[in-house]
Design goal:
single chain, 181 residues, mainly alpha, 7 helices
Length: 181
């Protein structure tokens, strides 16, 4: 019964989001004769579909959902930069600090939970480290401000190394003995 109700609610939400997107496109085309603000609505619908509908419909794990949300928000920031042609604020400051926050989030979960069997949040942490490295390369090549992306790159790669080393039970026990934690 719960699955049927959840599927019905998800279908209703998808219909409302799709109808709102179509209505927005129609209004934009009617008044502006081009797609001006509707690109934001279309992107919002894509974010809704990828970040809310699919994880609930497919029952993705928490780490998979948070990784998909983080990556799509990074893509949305880059999309806003490209669409508004203000290449700077998002790539210079928003993206590095968002990636740093997501890396710290994954690292805290790796350390707070006792995951000794798998790499549930280690893989998303590695993805964020890779994205921070890509952001640093883009900022460096385009002569943008590099200190936020460089600091994010260093911090996220350090978190990956720490999460890899400290995920082992033996290392955690030795740290608990040494520091009385």
């Amino acid at each position: 019964i719960w699955i049927d109700r959840r599927n019905l609610v998800l279908k209703i939400l998808l219909f409302i989001a799709f109808a709102g997107t179509i209505l927005s496109i129609a209004v934009d085309l009617f008044f502006n004769r081009t797609l001006a603000f509707s690109w934001y609505v279309i992107t919002g619908f894509a974010l809704f579909f990828v970040c809310i509908y699919l994880p609930l419909k497919k029952q993705w794990s928490f780490s998979t959902s948070s990784t998909v949300v983080g990556i799509t928000l990074c893509a949305y920031i880059v999309f806003l930069e490209l669409y508004t042609q203000t290449f700077g604020w998002g790539v210079n400051y928003v993206l590095p600090f968002f990636l740093l926050a997501m890396s710290a989030y994954c690292c805290v979960i790796v350390f707070s939970r006792n995951y000794f069997k798998g790499f549930e949040f280690f893989f998303p942490l590695s993805i964020y480290a890779f994205l921070s490295a890509a952001n640093f390369v883009v900022c460096y090549c385009l002569n943008l401000v590099i200190w936020p992306s460089f600091s994010c790159f260093l911090a996220s790669t350090t978190m990956v190394a720490l999460a890899f080393v400290f995920r082992y039970r033996k290392v955690k026990r030795e740290l608990e003995k040494s520091f009385f934690v």
